[in-house]
Amino acid sequence: MLELRDVYKYYSVGRGWVFGREKVKAVDGVSLAVAGGETLGLVGESGCGKSTLGRVALLLERPDSGRVFFDGRELTRLSGSQLRMHRKNMQIVFQDSLSSFNTRFTVEEIVSEPLLNYEKLNKETARERVKEILQAVELEETFLDRYPGELSGGQRQRVGIARALVLNPRLIILDEPLSSLDVSVQAQILNLLKKLKLSYGLAYLFISHDLRAVEYLSDRIAVMYRGRVVEILPKRSINMPVHPYSRLLLSSVPVKHPRFRTNQNIYETKKGEDENSRFPADWQDPGCAFRFRCPHVIEKCSEEKPELLHINREQQVACFNISVGRRVVNGAD
Length: 333
Ligand SMILES: Nc1ncnc2c1ncn2[C@@H]1O[C@H](COP(=O)(O)OP(=O)(O)OP(=O)(O)O)[C@@H](O)[C@H]1O
Ligand SMILES: [Mg+2]
Known about the structure:
By secondary structure, the protein is α/β, with parallel strands linked by helices. It has 2 domains: 57-218, Rossmann fold, CATH 3.40.50; 220-333, P-loop containing nucleotide triphosphate hydrolases (Rossmann fold), CATH 3.40.50. The protein has helices spanning 50-57, 80-86, 107-119, 123-136, 153-165, 183-200, 211-217, 244-250, 275-278, 323-329, and strands at residues 2-13, 22-34, 39-43, 65-70, 73-74, 90-93, 171-175, 203-207, 220-225, 228-234, 309-310, 316-317. A hairpin with an 8-residue loop joins strand 1 and strand 2 (22-34). Helix 4 crosses helix 5 and helix 5 (153-165) runs parallel beside helix 6 (183-200). The chain is globular. 38% of the residues are buried. The structure holds adenosine-5'-triphosphate (ATP) and magnesium ion. Adenosine-5'-triphosphate is lined by residues 11, 13, 24, 26, 44, 46-52.
């Protein structure tokens, strides 16, 4: 349903009077697809480009190059107004979606706004639809007249989800939808997201630092490192990643089967250490960005960037030294 082909998004940062401005490769050649009704989890350390990828997928920001398709239609070719109509199909929920909202709007006004804009519904019909959606996100009708400031964190997030749902989208990008919430509330919102996905046949791109939540909600998981997707694997293989970076990142997911418990200490760095300052990014570097931290580095890694290639029907990995990971798949490492 959603497909990104070789998408790039660089930002210029800093002043750079003398040598020109530095560039940050927020998204550095990403290709991936989300099928209808599917949840693709997107994980990776802070600053690796997850949110940028989400924004570019929705064309909230135009990519520098590359193409984005939705149902076979190329969104990157649409004009502003065509794109606007298309956005109905794709919505986004942020960490705290309501914070961008006018606090003087009631819940009803917030949730019905897209309906009045896009569907040109009259107020009565819109109200009925808003009631329906509030019910779907498990909020009572009495919330219609409340203001964002009168809601708990979990209730606000439910309203944010209601607003994303109201136009009947087919895909929702969830950008860390749980991270501003208490642990107990996180579980409730996660269950709600799962329920909504089934009842509305939604597809999600689920961006999260919470690996257990990702495992719970996702069908497949994409791992990002410094702007590139380094591995895509099915949920059931979450404990058997192949790329050295995914092995480091996903090693904190509890392993159910002892056969697949591996000793990951070789990858560990001191707690609290800022990885980005230890391994500074040079945006003109031609090689694999992970090679400074990788215990399996070979010469080729500093010469070019590995492409994301299928190692079996369901799993893709971008690593030149893939035999390293294969041993894990075989349980021999
Ligand atoms: N508008 C912008 N201008 C300049 N640089 C930006 C902009 N937006 C993002 N970046 C940079 O692009 C990189 C990727 O940012 P992004 O927000 O996509 O990361 P992220 O993976 O979502 O991180 P987090 O997990 O902390 O939310 C970062 O280095 C960030 O500083
Ligand atoms: Mg982010």
